[in-house]
From TrEMBL:
EC numbers for this chain: 2.7.7.89, 2.7.7.42
Domain of life of the source: Bacteria
Organism (species): Rhodococcus olei
Top EC class of this enzyme: transferase
This protein's name: Bifunctional glutamine synthetase adenylyltransferase/adenylyl-removing enzyme
Task of the protein: Involved in the regulation of glutamine synthetase GlnA, a key enzyme in the process to assimilate ammonia. When cellular nitrogen levels are high, the C-terminal adenylyl transferase (AT) inactivates GlnA by covalent transfer of an adenylyl group from ATP to specific tyrosine residue of GlnA, thus reducing its activity. Conversely, when nitrogen levels are low, the N-terminal adenylyl removase (AR) activates GlnA by removing the adenylyl group by phosphorolysis, increasing its activity.
UniProt cofactor(s): Mg(2+)
Span of domain PII-uridylyltransferase/Glutamine-synthetase adenylyltransferase: 348-494, 878-1002
The keyword Kinase is assigned to this record: no
Family stated for the protein in its record: Belongs to the GlnE family.
CDD domains: NT_GlnE_GlnD_like (cd05401)
Domain Glutamate-ammonia ligase adenylyltransferase repeated positions: 89-324, 599-839
Keyword set, alphabetical order: ATP-binding, Magnesium, Multifunctional enzyme, Nucleotide-binding, Nucleotidyltransferase, Transferase
Amino acid sequence: MVKPPTARSTIPGVGRLGLVEPTAPAELETLGWVNTDSVELLWSLSRAANADLALRTLVRVRDGLGADGWAELDAALRTDTGLRGRLFGVIGASAALGDHLAADPRQWRLLAGDVLLPTGKELADELLAAVAAVPDASATGTNLVYRAAITGPDAVLALRKTYRNQLMVLAALDLAAIVENEPVLPYQTVGHQLSDMADAALTAALAVAVATIHPDGPCRSRLAVIAMGKCGARELNYVSDVDVVFVAEPADSATSRLAGELMRIGTSAFFEVDAALRPEGKRGELVRTLDSHVAYYKRWAKTWEFQALLKARPATGDLELGQKYVDALNPMVWTAAEREDFVPEVQAMRRRVEQNVPAELREREIKLGRGSLRDVEFAVQLLQLVHGRADESLRVQSTVDALTALAAGGYVGRDDAANLTASYEFLRLIEHRLQLQKLKRTHTLPPPEDEESLRWLARAAHMRPDGRTDSLGVLNAEIRRNAHRVRRLHAKLFYRPLLESVARLDKEALRLSPDAAVRQLAALGYTAPENALGHLKALTSGASRKGRIQALLLPTLLEWLSDTPDPDAGLLAYRRLSEAMVDADWYLRVLRDEGAVAQRLMIVLGSSAYIPDLLIKAPDVLRLFADGPNGARLLDVEPQDVARGILASSSRYDDPGRAVAAARSLRRHELARVASADVLGLLDVPQVCRALSSVWAAVLGAALDAVIRSSEAELGEPAPAALAVIGMGRLGGGELGYGSDADVLFVCEPRPGADETRAVKWANTIADRVRTLLGAPSTDPPLEVDTGLRPEGRNGPVVRTLTSYQAYYRQWAQTWEIQALLRAHAVTGDADLGLRFLHMIDEFRYPEGGVSESAVREIRRIKARVDSERLPRGADPATHTKLGRGGLADIEWTVQLVQLRHAHEVPSLHNTSTLESLDAIGAAELLSETDVELLRESWLTATKARNALVLVRGKPTDQLPGPGRVLSAVAQVAGWPGGDASEFLDHYLRVTRRAKSVVERVFGA
């Protein structure tokens, strides 16, 4: 610390004193601190966290005291360095406590002289005196029931003022070392004192509640207030919710009203009193008897509820009843680690907490982010619960005490415990300083660009320049260092696989021996049994309960896998999925208890390379593998409900990227559901195509809506144009496959009064952004938006107005472009504009009098070119599902030619679906029933095979492979009995060959 100048020195400049506001010289003049006698005062003031704030507050205090009162305080400050440190420390670090002092400046005397922390009894007596409370007639022994003489708003004001005085004294002692050479209050002392203050506050609130609820007589009910969380552990923050649980005898309406009034008074006067940790949470009864509590925890409580009981402590009210509550429930806490899936539940809860922190705040969140306070607390609590069953020395409540006990017991290295304790206390110090500034509940560091706030925080945390770095640099370095240390030690202590073994220690855990595993795998048809054995060892390793369950499950699972096309790949996928689900408490339980789920999962994993990654990212789909009232629950989901869910979920986000991410997440879930049901033979081809088309349209709509909302926010006004997306090709027909892109047209219409050029430019920007967002690299199946069917192809503008489209199709459209319009369907965007676009193109795609013969000749010519030029080099025309003989292109071109010729006279041909158009063709007898059925069967067979190829290989492809395991897999996924590749291929060739004969007749007619 720099030695202050002597009294003979001149007054330093305000800048050197840390006073940067232009009013500082005048304020110093007001205080009379401009002479050499005030040098020591000024140097003390300069060490305050915010010297300007402290100076402004002093001026307000002076104004409140008047001349004589200020003279007394001024004289005390010049002689009492302790007062100077405490006063300047608190008013320079806390604007809220400065306001409190300025409202009643005489309270400065609380900080003068030898100030000691009051005991818990002294705190309670002071608060009770503020409302003139005396023991209630029902108070006996440990039943701390008082009756206040002051109630209502007056009581709240009196309690609030007294509590703030107590808080000011504690904060002043805590902050005094910043300014003067005062003792530093240890972190635990601050936490204990704040908890004692909370106990006293609850006692006073109960006194007011008793007088309010029982104004005419004594309170006959026994009510115990149990402190939970940080208050229960006596490590409370300056500003924090105080978690409580109420136990009463009897638990009647009067007692419930008493507890509710206590919460209301406490929340109004002191801090938020929260009873959400009670049985059944906020939906449960506010007050229960001891027997009711015990019954609930024996039968219904979840693991996290036992974890919360670690910190339960009687705080006030009937302390004897409160101690009975703790004594009754405490033994259950230390057997919680024996509960089913205990460790994964604790880990899953920690991850849920992390996920609730917005991504942009995770690096600034010192309570819930990575490397935060919660990491330390969760790791410590887990170790306590695991080892505390046998070692009673670990049954302590505070985090620091628990770390000390864990180190003493040899469960944590002494250095690790010391380092974790140091980092934990540092982060709690930062948390305390953040909360003191405005007495607001916060755990978030100021943003990096707010250097002024960060510099204040550094000074309030007593961080000084180290000769190489200023205080701000020291703060940033310390925050990074401690967060990194917590992350490193948390991973070491919390995520070690050993923890599950410790929690599930069982010397008789079942596991497959290496020799038996190899023999069994080979007998079941595994082509690489050594690799499979490695997977099995990984799945059954350790003495954990999960390992035991896996060892019990695997013989049956392996048998089911052996009936799939690729059991080796299936086992690898199962290992990957199991590793991904290691923290999901329900996963193995479902496989163990619901055989249908396990069997269906093995079929899926052993059949498809497309689905495992989806299931890993959308594991909740596994729950749908179970049986429901109408069969597998995979069929209980309607595509339209999924589409609505995608749109609703994405609409919650203003940022288009996050909106699309939300839509992608639900799409992933739906793809996993549809693909799994497809592999299991639960959906037919039309159902699969409709579901895939629906989810594609919903994602496209979600992206469009999000981009438009974002654009309107940027513009500060409504969009200048309406924008609709017209699905083309298979999207327009509702017949998408797993590997299909989305062919679309974008059409816009300027809003009334909008400039058309600007509106069209805006619409093009929106369309480009939508395509970019959806086409961004991702491990999910791709989302490619293809606008190649637009007028002038890839050389034309992406977006046109309705009028422009009409003019183009009337004057310039080629035959193939008119043919493409047969599958145009409005899929998202402005519904009215989309409908008007469809009505506009009807005159072109359903021409009056039918298509001309010259157009028919052009269609035949183009089809011949497609057949000869577009088939990939080396592809087999007999087995190419899209462009091969009797494949999808053949069927679709045939149907479209019939539509162009007859749609003007057969309204039912005004349809974008190939299958529905075939129905209309058959009903109108434009083709024979046999021909229609041949075309239908070929389209369904080729589509099923094409989808099966993607499901088996995991990537889009149109070419059926030659004989082998892949073709067998395609056959089995395509629903061919027994997966006989030869019979499947023979069937495919026969169906497509017969359909090709129909195609040739229709195109040659």
